[in-house]
Every structure is written in C-alpha cells, then in structure tokens.
Amino acid sequence: MKLDSIKHLAMRKWIDDMAAMCMPEDIYVCDGSQAEADDFAAQMLRSGVFLPLAKRPNSFAVRSDPGDVARVENNTYICSRYKKDAGPTNNWRDPDDMKGELRQRFFGSMRGRTMYVIPFSMGPVGGPLSHIGVELTDSVYVVLNMRIMTRMGQPVLDVLGKDGPYVKCLHSVGYPLTEGRKDVIWPCDSNNKYIVHFPEERAIWSYGSGYGGNALLGKKCYALRIASVMARDQAWLAEHMLILGITSPEGQKKYMAAAFPSACGKTNLAMLIPSLPGWKVETVGDDIAWLRWGSDGRLYAINPEFGFFGVAPGTNMKSNPNAMHTIEKNTIFTNVATTKDGDVWWEGIGYAAPEGMTDWLGGSYDPSSGKAAAHPNSRFTAPASQCPVIDPDWEAPQGVPISAILFGGRRAGTVPLVHEALDWEHGVFLGSIVSSETTAAAAGAVGQLRRDPFAMLPFCGYNMGDYLAHWLKMGLQQGAIHPKFYYVNWFRKGHDGQFLWPGFGDNARVLKWIFERCDGKGKAQETPIGMLPEASAIDITGLELSDKTMDELLTVNKEEWLGDLPGIRSFYDSFEGNVPQNLIEKLSWLEARLKK
Length: 596
Prior knowledge:
The chain has 596 residues and is an alpha/beta fold. It has 16 helices and 29 strands.
C-alpha cells in the first residue's frame, strides 16, 4: 500500500521524519495479506536469502551473518529520563545523548532500500487488553516474521483511526546500498548494534541487527520492556509467562500461567501431553502473558503474540511433539542445518544427521569436526494457530481467567518438586527469588546459580525493585480474587547425579495437584517454605518411583535453604535499597521459620 493509505496524521509525520533521516529509496505500507506475503517470499527466494524446503509446504530456511545470531543484552538500553527509573539491572543511557548517537547511525541507513511500514497489534485486533505498534524496517525478513508473530496490516490501521495511540518502532539492519555497494544475503552492522527503548515516549529504536528479538520489535522489546512500563502506569502486568489450559477427566478446566528462565522447559510445558489418562493440556501462549483484573475480580490473561519464535535444538518428538507438528508448514527456520532432500535438522531433533547436509554457515556438514550443524540459538517462526493443542479461547479478546501462577528454575538441590505460597505477598516473594543453574547452552560456567525474578531480569523496562512493588500493589486491588502461587522444580537430582523426577508428560502429575489445590482439595502440609504435597497427594500411578525418591523430591532441607539465604539477601542488596520492605521482611520471616 502507498503511504497515503494512512489516515493517522501524526503517524504520517513520524514516518516522514524517520524517512528523512534514514533516506530509503521507497516507502511501502504492509497490508498483511497472503498475496503480499507470497510476493515477499518469492522476492526472498529470487535473491537467495530464502532456501526452499521441499519437505515442508510454504516453509523456508535462512542463514544469518555469523556475527548476528542472538539477542545482544550488552547492547540493549533503557533510556528513561532518570537513571534510577531504569535501575541497576538495566543498561541506562540519557535519552537525549542516545538519540544523538543513534541519529548518526540511522542517517542514510536505508539508502537503496525500501522502508516497510508494519502496523501490528499485540493481542486480538481491537481487544480490550490489546495494544498497537508500528514498526519501520528495511528488512523483508522482518516483515515476514512479524506477519507470523503479530496481527498485522490494514485492520490495525482501521482500529488506530486518525489519532489512536501506538508504540513507535524503528529498525534498520544498518547496511545502506550506497553507490557501488552490493547487497549481501544477510545485511547487518554486526559491530555496531543498538537495541534501545525510550519508555516515557513509548518508542523503540533498533539498529545493526536483523535477528530475532533485536529486529522483531513486537517481541521482547515491545511485549515486555515497553509493555511492562505501560502496565505499571495503567495497573496491569506484562510478563514473561506461558499460559496453558488444563482440563480434568470430569471436564473441569482451569488456566495457569508460568514464568521460567531459559532452558527450564517453558515451551515444553505450554504444549504438554499429559501422561495421566483423561487429562488434557491446551496452549494459549508459550512466552508472554498480559494480565489484568476483570470486572468479576479474577485475573485475566492474553497471549499478545500470534506465533511461536522457538529454539530449535532439543525440540523433538519426545520433548515436544506438538511443537514438531506446529512447524510442519508455513514456517521460517533460521540458522538450522538443511538436508539434501529439502528438510531441516538440528542437534537433539531425535534422529541421526542425514548424509550430505549443509550446516547453518552454508558449508558441508562434517560430523567428525565436532562443530554443531545448527546454531545453538537457531529458531523457528510458526503460526500459533497451527499448534495441534491450541486452546479454543487463545484469541478471546477478554483473555482467560488465571487460577494459578507457577515459577520454576533448574535446581539440582534445595528446591522441592513443588510448593505453594501462603498468600499473594508470599507468592510475590517466591517470584522475586526465582533462580536457575546455567546449562552448557548458556554463557558462563555450567551450574552457576543465576537469580532471575519472575524470569524478567533481562526484560523489565524499568527499575526491578519498582517492578516487585507493582506486583505487591496489584494484589491489593479491592475485590481481587487472587490466583494461587507455586514454585516447581523438575530438575532435582539424587546423590547419583540423575534426575529424580521423569519430567515431560509426567509434569502433568504436579499440575493435577495444583489443579486440586485451586479447588481447596489436594492434601498438603505446611513447611517453613510454604505448603508441600503430602507424599500420597502426587498421583504416581504407573511410575516406578520409590517412596524414598518421592520423599527426596518433597523434602525441605533446612540447612540447604539457610545456605541459600545469604545469596538472596546479597541479590536484594544489589537493587540499591529499592527492594520493597515487605519482601525484605518476608526473607527474615523465612529465615526464622527455617531456624525453628
């Protein structure tokens, strides 16, 4: 569409101003149609950026520049007016200084390219919990991925009308086609990346990267960093949480949200296939939840995204068959290996690498080299609607009612299989002490304990201490019917170093107990850290788990917990005196209970 199709005059001026700075050869407004997407895909195929996949209808593989393969936290900034508003866990820069630096980068950055205008909705278009953004980009790859990940095009402009609010998102790969400069398969400016958020003006500027959350600005940039500030100001919550629906054999259904750090099985839980007969889990979202109190006092959540942007390695028919079925068609794969017969492959896919593969760098794959065929952060972008267990109400504009909120982490010891908070304040405390041990896929030493409150540490757009205070305040709303809070740990190990709990579909056995607890059932006993299931309360029918193993899974080792407290206290201290007093007192309360 042409620029004059936009009736929003303030938006037109913003686009004109950004175009004057970036100097694109042309401006194109995306309508979001299938015909448009087909044309863009054909363009990408002709240029060699997209590789066709004969085994997967309407699916393509892409290889990025080796210097542009993941989110760049060190180059991610929160540019609030005051440094204290960003807090000690964010990289802060003065907004005016950063704008000056960025204008130099963006000046002429789109020369020889088209500026694509992407109107997109986070959440169902026009829904009461939804919000709108507009991304300007010089990347067709971004356009096609944003079409999968968000609701995009003319219907969004119709909702905005002439003066509706929206978040301004500016993106450039930073590779202008100046005279004599040829284009490349993956244009970027890998040595000069900026992912910058301006919370007060609801704006995002991203330069130099074409990859993932650096470039698909509806994801972490908008849906969490900017949205968390909007949520603070407007009394709702923007969270790094999956949403699932679970139905009992009797047909009763409840919805749960869960916040896990990376490598803790978040997507697998969202698409769980229960091992318990008669139980069913359906997916509302696998990554982000926006939550708001309803008129009936319950907490309602939507998944603001329209697709899944999942990590490929480790995804297989055992770990997540529903994800594997979701990506059978209409999917964009980035930095995976490709096979001779037109399919994709990655480490942990569940079967041996076929001969004659091409690795993610475009070379012949040599298994004896010891090098990975797919990048560890290789991805798939697929429509959520293709998930075999997508929830019937996943697009309900008003959201789904949340009965329980789960936190989790990868802990070899200390944290039991599951425990329940005593009340809302205790639940927020549990969220504030979420921690996980690093795996080989993460930077740093294996087994290092990282604290990640609410799994939001890299994604909160303002001071994390204020964020925790906002959670406490949300629980004080008059007439609010609080969901229950739980902390789960599928990764506890025995003395032999082996996992005690089978995990995967058997995690439904823990969800069953949580389901029962939400109804005031399910046997539990009070411990210093909260309510734990009695050994007989977890249904282990059909599992070869001894009484000793279950006791170990559900044991509260006071000495281990007391050994954990100094690390929590030190972590709280790192917030420079901005942790709510209620939580500091709750830490002392926990210590006193453990010492009894």
